Amino acid sequence: MTTTLRRADARRIALAAQGFARARPEMVGTRQITGALHRMRILQIDSVNVFARSHYMPLFARLGAYDTGLLDKLAFSRRPTWVESWAHVASLVSVDDWPLLQFRRDAMRAKYGDDEWARANRPLLDWLRDELAARGPLRPADIDHDARSGSRGSWWGWDDVKNGLERLWLSGDVAIAGRRGFERRYGLASDVLPAAALQTSVPRVAAIAELVRRAAVAYGVATAADLADYWRIRDRPVVLAAIRDLVDTGELLPVEVEGWLVAGRPAKAWLHRDAARPRKLDVAAILTPFDPMVWFRDRAERLFDFDYRIEIYTPAPQRRFGYYSLPVVVGDDVVGRLDLKADRANSTLRVQSAWWEQGAPPDAADRVAEELRTAARWQGLERVTVSRWGDAVDAIAGALRAERHDHPDDRANVNAPPPVRGGA
């Protein structure tokens, strides 16, 4: 029998599965960080640093202000317990999960290991392995080779050394042994990862089945597309077979969610048997665009009726909400979006724009204001100022009793219409 869930129920289940049903701890240490990481299983990495690096923000959303150095020790040390891998694109995953992604590294090796560039640069790839074996983990800037002053490679404009290191990382010959700032240090996988992670072999189909199972736990309720996207798995037949097996064992329960439609018909979805089903949630959180709650835009729209796009690459006069707007959750719903900038030279968190979604509750401005104060403290900033761009800025500035500032995009976007949403 298929259970029917209201959309609000699905939202609460999804938020709880991601750790938002838990009260933020008074003190955040390694144990709390590790617990949150294991619930998510993955942190996507992104280079944009207007407010904070993306991989730091999901932990802030769930735990509140914390020492990012604790995550750095887990992920960016010479012997990390969380390591960079191509998972949901470039991401941090547990070292214990390294074997589950071997099928992806094998696919990368097949794609890039014998293409035209690899054949032309075989001596360079061999030399890079030898250099890392002799000297240990290195940044590209630490490597002196004729290729650094020669022709530039075709990948992202990187030179041949960087290109070669990235290929070796994607194929698993190399692992990331920390970063300086945001620059990677590359080391032989055998010098970075424990032998158990390197010697454990998981067949491709079994690995995908386990990743689907973990995605089902992390999402609580999901469609097949949701479960595949969590780890960016493109093999739909294998994903569907994994779902069938989980249904047969009783771990997944078929459900229909109000408003989740495909071609006008109820979308097939599944509820994890252990998923918490809270009747009420009292969340206040600022999300990164790459938080698992919203990184799959189709799912964000189904859960929250939230149409979300990042406007980094949109010309300023055409931006509707701001350069890097961040979704804001209050209660159990996305109630708005904020474009934040950390002005470190002036120790100021600047709210560059702020917008409400339809149906924002009466206390939304106060809740957002308190979260902004916490965000400023987390980033070591002394004050918050608010621009005049957006239909939420006056209410938020009033709740903060904040100074106002002008933003270059104000005049171009002052008449931008608010988002249109349907029912909950």
What's the short version?
With 424 residues, this protein is α+β, with helices and mostly antiparallel strands.
Overview of the structural elements:
The longest helix is centred in the middle third of the chain and has 16 residues, at 204-219. It contains 17 helices and 17 strands. Strand 14 (333-343) and strand 15 form a beta hairpin. By secondary structure, it is of the alpha+beta class. The strands form five sheets. Strands 12-13-14-15-16-17 form a six-stranded mixed sheet. The protein has helices at 7-17, 30-40, 57-63, 68-75, 102-112, 116-120, 122-135, 160-171, 189-192, 195-199, 204-219, 224-230, 236-248, 297-304, 364-378, 393-400, 410-413; strands spanning 3-5, 43-44, 82-87, 89-94, 174-180, 183-188, 221-223, 252-257, 261-262, 265-266, 269-272, 283-286, 325-331, 333-343, 348-356, 383-386, 403-404.
